[in-house]
Structure formats: structure tokens, C-alpha cells
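Components:
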Amino acid sequence: MGRLEVLCVPWKTGSNEMGGQMSETVEATPATDTAMPAAGAVVSARDLTRRYGEGDTAVDALRGISLDVPKGQLTAVMGPSGSGKSTLMHILAGLDKPTSGEVTIAGTEISKLNDSDLTKLRREHIGFIFQFFNLLPMLTAEENVLLPLSIAGEKPDKAWVDELIDKIGLADRRKHRPSELSGGQQQRVAIGRALVSRPSIVFADEPTGNLDSKTSGEILELLERSVQELEQTIVMVTHESRAAAIAHRVLFLADGVIVRESKDISAQDIVAAMDELGGS
Amino acid sequence: MTKFALKALLGRKLRTALTAFAIVLGVATVSGTYVLTDSIDKAFGSIFTDSRKGSDAVISGKSAFKLGSGTGVTAPAFDQGLLQEVRALPAVAVADGSVNGEAQLIGKDGKAIVYGGAPNLGFSIARGASPFNPLSLVQGSWPKRNEVVVDKSTAHKEHFTIGQTIRVQAVGPVQQLRLSGIVKFGSVGTIGGATLAGFDLPTAQGLFAKRGKLDEIAVASKSSVPTAQLLAEIRRILPKDTQVRTGQAQAHEDSKDTNAFISFLQKFLLGFAGVALFVGSFVIANSLSITIAQRTRELATLRTLGASRRQVLRSIILEALVMGIFAAIVGLFAGLALAKGLFKLFDVVGFTLPNNGLTLETRTVVVSLAVGIIVTLLASLRPAMRATRVPPIAAVREGATLPESRFARYRSIASVLLAALGFGALLWGLFAPGLGTAGVLLFMLGGALLVFFGIALLSVRLVPPLAGALGWPATKIGGSAGVLARENAQRNPQRTASTASALMIGLALVTLVSILAAGIITSFRGSVDKIWKNADYAITAQNNFSPIPVAAANAVAKAPGVIAVGDVRAGETQAFGKTINTTAVNPATSRMFNLDWKVGSGAVLATLGADGAFVDKGYAKSHGLGVGSPVPLTFPDGSRELFYVKGIFDPPTGGSPFGSVTISAASFDRHIQLPENLYSFVLMKGGQTSANAAALDRTLSSFPNAKVATRQKFIDNQISGLKSVLNILYVLLALSVVVSLFGIVNTLVLTVFERTREIGMLRAIGMTRRQVRRMVRHESVITALIGAAIGIALGIVLASLLIARVDFIVLSIPVGQLIIFGIAAIFVGILAAIFPARRAARLNVLRALQYE
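Structure:
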């Protein structure tokens, strides 16, 4: 679909026309009105802004974002390049600090935490899945999965680890090193690593961005299952409509603000919505 | 996390090995030094113990004061009548007397047999069965009148056979002796390059001009008599000029000089080990820094998984610890090999050392391991601190860079301050009055360390301009590869600076040494040229420094064409409560020497007479001496005499052959038992002609240990010893250059690894393998040249400071040598690049581009 067409068609109607099935579309604004985090939210953000640089060259990556991530749900953040979706995730995960605003993870306001408290928070509550897997090449698949526990100095629960490794489908690849695994298998290891400490929230940064479409499907299915079967809360940043389609809720970002929030939206509708936003 | 740290090391075997190698070499030097010196110590120890075996007490001649070794004067011998008295003592079971001295064996080619600077020991053997005899016969029989036995190794090297006639020279002219046997000394395999010649007592007394005299009496007591009683009995009959010690005490006394030498050698070598370790620590710190920069994402991932800063710090330090342990252990054993190499090295340059097998003491193990591990840990601190600054967000951001330390902006100021402080300490150490030797050394050492640190830190600023200038030729010869090489050298100045700094230290020291040596040589040459006025030839020992018997000069005086022979004798005396170097001259020297007289004239040399003396300016000043002042001299035999100052001279910068006080040869000979000449100078009819040289050679053929030299040859001979020392210094400093070479290899390997994708791209757009190699090589050479440029400049500055303080050396820059050092640096660069360049060129283009 060409860009001109997108400009001609208002995005609401566009999505309705394109969408094969109806999806609930909510304006993003209601969430921002509540000053307090919603009850049951694992991660909450209020009035986040993030400015890079100073003076004339300053860029506002986030310009007032508020959101709540409910427990046990998969929330996708979408938006064109430069929309601020990565920045948002970095700030939600405590990797970056907002210029203003607050982030609460599992009841703790994190923007004022020092490095060691943040470290503790990460150990207890946060798991990460990266676009480039970020496995440690010298450790085996199993060792990579167990790494967060070993860092935290915790003894792994063997039954849980076996179950997890079974779930991620790497029971026969435990002793392999990342270099001996395919991309999809490596991302499975990374998912196992993110889930092993049963964190309050997992942040996935373009988890299928570096995989072919078949493998992407398998990884998405694994993520979906981890939400369904393990009640894992996940926030996923992606620019792939297919990936976002597995989410309970999709937040659309453009120019540093949430412009739309959709629940249980289909891939086609997402494509349409993204076209509206002027990117893929 | 422990597992992670260990696996991180194993996952980078090549890099770890390359990094560790820098420390391996340093530790090897430490352990090699200890092994070497302990082995020598043990070998000497058993030599001295063996040579006193069976002796409960030893009676020896006593000098009036403690004599230094190798000054040509030994304790006076005593009358052999004492032996009968000792034998008659009730406590004494056996007593044997002996004499000893330098005995020169002469080879079949008519030349003296000298191995390195080792002594040529001659001694009497009372009888083969004597309990005091440390020798055992390998072949033949013990010597009788006019016979000699020699040690196995010398006999073997010179192809001596029993029954043949060997020429031997001690004090007088050469004697012909029959070889009666071949002997072995105690349990020691080799006694260094020393040659042994044993004679019966009368023959030895003849050779050493000690007729009717003895140097020592070895005594064994009756089995029931305690040593104390034996000593007491001996003391009752002991004449004034003798002393008695227990066998053990005598062995200890014998070993004093060697112990001092070994202890000096140990400190000397440890100094170089310290330099190698210091350079090694730079290499380690740099390699770890680069590795950590490359592991930014990995470390950041660990942080996102909940690793704390402390855990990151710990894991890096743990890596360093394991590497340090590994390197220290390898270094410890490499030290054994190095010790062997050092034995060979000393052998080659002429200091053959006794060797009775290598000794590995517990102390060696402990110190080597501790030093290796501690240096590695210290070097890892800064990189480890850097690693803790890796932010978790670097796990998700491409090309994330490390945030600068809070103190980064003070770095330039701090490095300038550090260097300034270092120079301050150096200057203070050099010029501040009243510092003891230890204080001077401490300030200079500390100052030098600070200077090196400061300059190393400061060199970050020097890299861009230096790389620009030194890389210019590369851009001309190397084409685009050269241009890229220069850019590469400039793009991470910190890295280039650290890599170059390691080489900088080595080259600064090499430059310092070469300038000091050039200064000493120039000064010495200047002095000889100035003092040596009229003489045509000089006569010295074959090894250029041993004293030669007076008989040689006396023989030369009778040679055809000789107008005059000027002798310079040397020995130790005591004056004003201090032992001083004293020289003596005969009147003929007044026709040969040109001295800068402050008081008196050249005629003083000829008119010293029985009680005249001349002194140098410094000595006159410090003791308030003027013409007519009395100088009381005490000689080793205890005799005392007053001499009166007749002249004061100002020695040239490079020193003079004269001691603090010089008297006439005639007076000297009155008090010294066996006077010997340090040098003799010869004035001949017709000057330097081949006929004259031949005449002198002919005369000296009966004094194989003496040789004739023209002025030029004399200078060359005298500085050849210095050149040997210089060569040892260069070899030892080369060790630190090798360490820095590994630093360059390491940096390049890591850099190539880091630029895999970039190199793949260059290859993809048409760069040939050859060009890739050239690019890496040029970068290496530029880095090495930066190190050389800063190092040579720093070396010149340091040498100038030192020479400004030391008044007997003039500053003389050996330009040719410095250029050679620069060229050597280029070779170091080329050598260091071989392996990394091949790796870079071998990269598969496709895989390099896919590399993630």
C-alpha cells in the first residue's frame, strides 16, 4: 500500500475497513488521566518524557506517555522507526532514565533508585529477551538459561528448570553452545533465560527481528504459550504486525506519544494502523 | 559468576595466552635471576666448603686493614717456620702449609689460557693424601718437584696429556713444568672459567716468589680435642702478622667477596626483571582494556540479567587472578630455562660462572608467584573499574560506548602533574645534598616510575600528531593501505598510546644506557688522549685489567729500541682512617704523562723520591692538603710511613690512571711484598713502527699474560670490558622490548578481531589480501615508531639529567645508535604484525560481513 493512500484515509476508518474482524479500539488518553498506577498493573508509567541532547539539537523521544501493564498479559508496543518505542521500553525496564515522569515496577518507583537497588530489582522482577539474543558464547544452552539464577546466587529448582527447558524445546540441546545452535534455538535459550527466575515482567526487544518468518512463528508461539501457561507478563517492542498480533493489547506510538491502543487486534488491522502512522 | 569468569578466559584462549605472555616473561626473569644466583651461590658455597674440608683451623697472613679483592695486593705471607711449631702443639693431629696465587697456564699457541674474566688459580698441594686436599686425581699422579697438575676441563679444552711439558707463569718468568696428573675439584661440575694449577710446595714457593714463606696453614685437631682448645693453643704461638680462624669461619671469609658479587648480580638482574614486569603490566592493562571494550555488550547483558557492578568487577579480577596464576607458574618454570640461557650469555660475554646444576629455592617459587599474580591483579584494576561502568543499556544499543570516568576530564592535568612530580623526584634524588645512596636510588627509582606513568598517560595527546608525522612515509609507500593504517593508528589514541607506551619504556632505558656508555667512552678517550703524551706503547694484562708482574716491565726495558718504560703500580693503603686507592709511578713516567698540574709540574713525577707524593685536586681539597702537607699511609703489612705532598693535579673528566695518592714505585715496593704493575708505558726510538712492536712482542713472549698496545688499541681494549657490560645490559633490556612486542601483537590481534566486519567490507570492495596485510603492518610500525620517538626523547632527557649530576661523564649523543634503535623499532613493528596481519588477510570475506 502506497504512502499517499495512507494519508488520504483516516486511520480509524482505515482499520475498520481493513480489519477482517472487529477489534476494540480505545483512545490512548484515558489511561493518562489516572494519576495513580492501576491496581494489578505490574509496570506503570506516568507522564514519561525523554529528551536527548540539549538546545537546538535536542530531540524529544518521548513526550508524555502514561500506561499500565496488567499482570499476565502480553502487551506489544508498535510504531515506526523513531517513534520512541525502544526508548519507552528502555525506560520501563530501568535501563534508561526518563527526563521526567515516573515508572513503577512491581510496586517500586524506579527512577530514583541507585545502581545497586536497580540491580536487585532486575534480579527479582525483570527478564530480558533481545533482538540479537545476547547469549554468552562460552556457556552452554543450559548454563545460559541458568545464568540469572547463578548471578543472583540462587539454587535452581531442578523440576522447574527441566520443565522450562522442555517447554522451550531444547531438552536435547542442553550441552550445546550458542555457536552450535540455529537462530531460533538461540532465541529459545534467551527466552528460557528470561523466564527462569519467574520475573514479574519480561521485556522483549524485537524478539523476532533477527529471525526468518518460520522461526519467528515458532518463537511467537512460545511467547504466547508462556503467557497462557505460565501467566508470564510480557512487554514486547516490535515493528512486525505478525508479532504484535499475538498480544492482548497493542500500543501504537508515533512521535513520542501513544496514539492508539487496541485490544486483540489482528495482523491485518495492525498493518493498516501502522500504515496510518506512516511506517511499517 | 565464577564459572562465567573462568569460561570467559577459556573462550578466549589465544587472547588470554598472548596477554599472559607479557607477565610470563617478567616472572621468568625474576625466577631466572633467583635460580641463576642461587645456583652460583650454591656452586661457590660448595667450592669454599670443599676447599676447607678437613680443616678445623686455618692460619693465614694478616693485613693491616681489610683489602678489596683484585687490587693486586694480597695479605702478606708469613715465615714457614711456624708450621713446625704448629705441628708440635699437643692438640694438633695434622697441619699442612700452602702458598697460592695467580698461576697462568700457557696454551700450545703460546697464549695465556683465560676463560672469560675467571681467575687462574695456582696453589701448592702438600701431598695427595692430605686431609685438607679438596682435589681428587682423575688421571696420573700428584705433583712432585717441577711438576704440575691441572683441572680436567682445562686439560680437556687444551688437549693436555700426562707427561707433556706445560709452561706456567706466576710472578717471575715462564717455567716449564711436567704435567703429572689431571685433577677434579670436590663435587662441583664446573668451577666457572677458572683454571686450576697445583704444584708441590717448593715449586709453588718458587713460582709465587714466596721462598721460605707460607700463605696458609690448615690444621686438623686430634679427635678428642675441641676446636676452641685448638684455637687457644695456636693463638699462644701465633706471630703478629698472622691470624687463625676455624675452618668454617675461613670458608665464610673466603666467600665474602663472591657473596657480595652474587648479591650485586642478583639485585642487578632483579632490576631488569622489574623493568620487564613494569612493561608487562602496561601490556596486561592495555589488553584487558581492549578486551573489555569488546565485551561491552556481554558485560551489559550480564548487568541486565541482574549482575551487580561488584560482580562484574569481581569476575574481571577473577579472570586476571587466574591468568596471573597461570602466567606466574609458566614464568616460574620458564625462569629455569632463562637461568640456563643467562649462564650461557655470561659465558659468551666473558663472565663464566660456576655451575653445579640449577637450584630452585622455595623463596624463588614464592616470590615469582607472588610477583606475577600481584602485578597482574594491579594491572587489571583499572580495566576492571572500567568494566563496572558498562551500562546495562549497552546490551540493546548498537555501538554503545563506555561512559567516561568521573575523573576523565582531569586526566591530562593529572598526567602532567604525575610526570612533573616524577621529574621533581628525579632531580631531588640527583641534586639534593645529603641523601644517602639508598635515598638517591629511592628518589630516582620512584621518580622514573612516575615519569614513565605520566608520560604514558600523556602520550594520548601525542599520538595524533605523532601518528600523522610518523605515518607519512606509510601513506607514501603503502598507498591506500598506508593511509588507512595511519587513520587506524589515530582513531583510538588511548589504545595506540598504551600499546606504544610499553615499547617507550624499553627504548627510553636503552637510549639512556647507550648515551651513558657513549659518554663514558668519549670521556675516557678524551682522558687518555690528554694524559698519554709521549709513550708509544702500553703494556697491560691480556684481560686488560689484571696487574702484571714487574718482571715484564723490567724485561721490556732491556728490549732493543726502548728508551724508557713508565710503570704505574696500584694497590690499597690506608690514609686518614680510610682505605684508598694508591698508585705508584717510576721516574720515567714524567717523560710520558701530561697532567693538568694545579700545584707543581710534570717534574713531580720524576722527583717523588722516598717520601714524596702527589694527590688529585678533589682529595687535596677534602683533606685540606697543600704542598708539603704530610699524608700518613698504612700499608697492608702494617708498616706506616709519612709522605709529603709535592704536587696537586686536576684529573680530566674521564678520570686518570692515578689513585687518590700517588707515591714513587721505589717507596711502594718497600712496603708491598709482590708489587705488580697495572700498566706500563713504553717510549721507543722511532716511535710506533712495526719493528718496534715486533721487538716488544718478542720480549713479552716469556710473559704470556702481558700484551702490547698502541694508544688506539689501548683505548679499545679498555672500553671492551665496558662494551661487554653494555651488551649484557642491551640483552636484558631487550627482554622488556620483547614484552612490549607482545603487547603490540596483542593489540593488533584484538583490533583485527574488532574490525572483522570492516576488513570484510574492504575486501568486498576490492582490497587484496596483500593490502590488508600491509595495512595491519603499517599500523604496527606506526605504533612502534610512536613508542620509539617518545622513548628515545625521554631517554635523552633522562640521560642528560644523570650526566649533569655525574662529573666524570660528558654528554655525547650517539646519533648513529639512536637511528639504529629507531630502525629496530620498525622491525619490532613488522615482527609484531606478522601474525595479526595473516589473521586479518585470512578472513573469509563473506563470513566477515556476516559476523555479528
